[in-house]
Specification:
By secondary structure, the protein is an alpha/beta fold. It is built from 10 helices and 7 strands.
Amino acid sequence: MANALITGASSGIGLSTARRLIDRGHRVFLLSYDEPELLAACAPLGERAVPVLCDLTLAEEVDTLWSRLEGQHGPIDILINNAGIGHQAPVSETDMATMRRLFEVNFFAAASLCHQAMVAMSSRRRGHILNLTSAAARRSLPGIGAYGASKAALHALTQSLRLEADGSGVVISEVLPISVSTPFFARAGYRPRGVIQTPEQVAEQILRCLDQGLAERTTHWPTALGFALDALFPNWVARLLAWRYRRPGALSD
């Protein structure tokens, strides 16, 4: 039985992934800042679900989390950095307090846990770190510049960490979802557009990465194709997107 820590696990992708791991016999530490929601999520999952209350905006809580959990429960073999917050506004209308809060949760908390996990796991020469970023980490769009930037930072960190972890016994994976039907968008104050996936679809890709040791998975193959075109023809894609979002009502349709 492995121990797994999932951040942002009281709903959505995190909770769906926790259910799957518990069904496999793992003990899962479900982390959230929302105590009532967290306890309600854990209640039907049985004794293998362990609620962990933590505010990821507070570095003093995050930076000692790993040692506290391992001291109480033993080695943690899987870290899934899933927690994230969003914000919809042009960059010119996003104040720096909001920008910093997004980075605190979406990047700095995840980076701290990656650091803590890597130190512990590499000493044991086993473990798996999986970061949930976003399709916006590869190509951010109008109105989500702050969110996209925070996820792009985590994407870059994940790429470096993967190479640094080579030969250490620690596997580093990344899943880049498109829009997912979770409470995330309501909390961020905007409505997703286009294809919307379910938390279960993303959890399936997470489990695939854990099972197969995959480096990276995008949850929607047309988006993955778009990434390839963007890499090959960035100027053409930039002109196409500029035309797309220049049309009247493009940001609201």
